[in-house]
Amino acid sequence: MFPLPDLTMKRPNLNRSRTLIFALFLLVGVTQAKARDLPPLRLSPAPAANVEDCEQHGPQPTQAEAPKGRGGGPGGRPGRKAALESEHRPQPMRTYAFNEHRRRARIEAFVRRPDGSVIQPTLQLGVNPNLSFPTPMGEGPSHGANNVYLIEQGVEDRVLVVRIAQWLTMHHNCGWGHEHKFDEQRTRPQALETIPLEIVIDELWDPNFHAKVTSGQQLKIMVLRHGKPLAGAKVQLQTAEKWVKEVITGKDGIASLQLIKDYYPAKWADFLRTKRAEFLVTAYAEVDEPGTFAELPYQRVRYISTLPWQYAPARADYTSYGLGLLIGLMGFTLTGGGIYFYRERRKKPYQGIDLDG
After folding, report:
1. What are the pLDDT digits (tens) for 4-44?
2. How many domains does the chain contain in total?
3. Could you give the CA distance from residue 79 to residue 323 in angstroms, rounded to a whole number?
4. Pick from 44, 51, 89, 92: nearest CA to 70
5. Is residue 238 part of a domain?
6. Which site in 13, 16, 128, 236 is 20 to 30 Å from 207, CA atoms measured?
7. Angle CA 309–218–240, to nearest 5
8. Structure pTM?
């Protein structure tokens, strides 16, 4: 008789294979989660000194009610307070902090000036990472909308994660005049084709370089991948009050959404029509595109891009109150006048009988 095969010797190998397969699936799941769990990269203005005031505008708005997060905005560093940057208080040097960076990733930054030229700001990495670049005072190539980009790229277990942080620096002072008010190159954001994923929002300010976004406004947000419209990208908008709205870009790369009205002070006497709050637009996109980056292979590319901006209360929010007061005052006046004339008409002249005559 032939001896029966010893199956007990193969069971450990079978169990080992199952264990390896399970570990592989677990590793894939963990790596994908690791790539997805990376928070968006974002910029915020660093405290500045020697600020030139604009006589036509009020004091620098402080962000005492700013969202508590990294960089003083949605998703920023806890406990840090920062002032919202004013487009009418120019500075000779601009410095922006960013929330974090991966130490093994490649980091680079660019600034597209209003005249179309591109410069590279100075990067400082480490504990307090930031970037800085000069913005000469007065009329010049920096007068207008400066697009600031911070790009971080790195492979996270076969996933290339590209995080982009954008900032729009409106470098302007009313004393310099408004010679470029009809020049769209300076008054409208201009995309840069070398940026992996860019967010472009029109009508952020008027031709006089005044910020014009208000609550309740309909925003058209375009997402570009290397300068071309990207369909199917997820766009998220978050306000300082933690209101969040998500939309998907269409074939033209545009997503449209309405900015919520979320400013309701407890007392009307506390209402500030010049109050500015911050909102953050974040765009997400993923593509199956294998390749190699820094000698590391990857199978997919995940893009995350952010763009913060400011919004003020809609004019109707405070003009309606003034209109209500005017209507109430007119009603009170008409009512009082009606009562007065009614009483005057009810008056009867005194009539007496002269008995001595």
Report:
1. 444 444 444 545 555 444 444 434 443 445 667 789 999 99
2. 1
3. 40
4. 44
5. yes
6. 236
7. 40
8. 0.72
